[in-house]
Structures are given as structure tokens and as C-alpha cells.
Amino acid sequence: MQIIIYNQKGGVGKSMIATQLALSFDTTIVELDPYGMLSDTLGKDIVYKVGLNENVPNIKEGDVIYDFGGFDDLRLDEVSKNADLIIIPFNPTINSLGTTLKSYKRVKEQNVPILFVVNAVLNDKDVEESINFIKENTQDDIEYFVIPHTRALQTVENEGVSIIEFANTSGLRKHTYRKISATMKDLVKTIEEYL
Ligand SMILES: Nc1ncnc2c1ncn2[C@@H]1O[C@H](COP(=O)(O)OP(=O)(O)O)[C@@H](O)[C@H]1O
Ligand SMILES: [Mg+2]
Hints:
It comes from Poseidonibacter ostreae. InterPro entries: CobQ/CobB/MinD/ParA_Nub-bd_dom (IPR002586), DNA_Partitioning_ATPase (IPR050678), P-loop_NTPase (IPR027417). This is CobQ/CobB/MinD/ParA nucleotide binding domain-containing protein. Residues 3-161 form the CobQ/CobB/MinD/ParA nucleotide binding domain. The chain is an alpha/beta fold and 195 residues long. It has a single domain (2-192), classed as P-loop containing nucleotide triphosphate hydrolases (Rossmann fold). Helix content is 46%, strand content 17%. The protein contains eight helices and seven strands. A seven-stranded parallel beta sheet has the order 3-2-4-1-5-6-7, sandwiched between helices. The longest helix has 21 residues, at 172-192. The protein binds adenosine-5'-diphosphate and magnesium ion (MG). Adenosine-5'-diphosphate binds at residues 10-16, 70, 119-120, 147, 149-150, 153-154, 157.
């Protein structure tokens, strides 16, 4: 199973999603972002960092998640060859949509199934408007998944743990984390349909 997380825009949740999926699917992350810091929180057993001018390891078999940086990376073409799915996370804000559209057009050339993740959502109207923007500008029938804005994801990011596991721990946390945990389980299920 090979999943690519791509958007030329930074700060849209690529590394958050890569982390949560790697912990859920028990896979390696190949970190292609030269500024990425995932090995600090997740450790070098999980994260394999590839420098900007280094070749990507040719992984034919085996489970891996590719976490890209926020720029147009030519290595996308290479890693797409064995990919099952390309996830494009984006924030439904005006300043994110142009770059997201550009990223989508680049990803479309790869002929790999694409799933948009509308991330850090504050209200439903933003989702509707941003999805319509992409549909109108591409005439494509796109598939998307929604993740709300929540502090819980920021907290587990710092700890490098799975939100689903974190929600299972006892006490007050359970209540606070239950909802986002259910959402992330749904994301995992949605992704499994592509594999
Ligand atoms: N759904 C969310 N709710 C709240 N904060 C989020 C959410 N998704 C990501 N973040 C936060 O946004 C910031 C950028 O996310 P990150 O995954 O590093 O983006 P990217 O890898 O695309 O640059 C991080 O601080 C992360 O914790
Ligand atoms: Mg990142």
C-alpha cells in the first residue's frame, strides 16, 4: 500500500495526516519535505528522511506514506508509479484554493485515484464553497473527506501518537477526543476502499 500526501501549499495538514495514517496503518513515512521534522516526534524507525537532492528509494512492495513539502516537487512523478492513492489536503480558505487547484492539476497527470481532504474546517459553508470552486474550475467530479478544526490534533501531533489510541485512554480525555477519533477512523475506512 502506497499513499502520497501532496499539496504545494504549506500548513494544510499534510504531515498531520501522514502521521495519523502511518500510525493507523503501521507504515513507514518517507519524508520528502526538506524542512520536515517528523523523525523528531515519531522516531527514525518510522520516518525515513530523503534530502532535497537525494533520490527517492525505489519501493515496489511494502507499505509507505510519502509526505511532501509545500512546493512543486518533481519527485511526485517518480513515486506516483507505485501509488494507490494521492491525498490532497487543503484548508477551505481563499488563500489556499489557488495553490490547491494548481496542485490538483499536477496530481491529475499521474493517473492515480485522488482524495481531497478539506482540513481544519470551521464551518460547513466553507466546505461547500471550496468544493464548488474546485468543481467549477475543473469540471471534475471530485471525492473529498472533511476533518474539522480541533486542538486535539495539535496535541497528539506534539506527542507523535495516534488520535485513535489517545482517545481510548481513560478519563476526561476520552470524551474530548471521541469525536475526532471517530472522524479519523472514518478516514481510514474511506482510504481502505482505494487499496
Ligand atoms: N484539523 C486540524 N485542526 C487543527 N489544527 C490542525 C489540523 N490539521 C493540522 N493542524 C495544525 O496545522 C499546522 C500545520 O499542519 P501540518 O500537518 O504541519 O501541515 P503541512 O505538512 O501541510 O505543512 C500544524 O500545527 C497542525 O497541528
Ligand atoms: Mg509538512
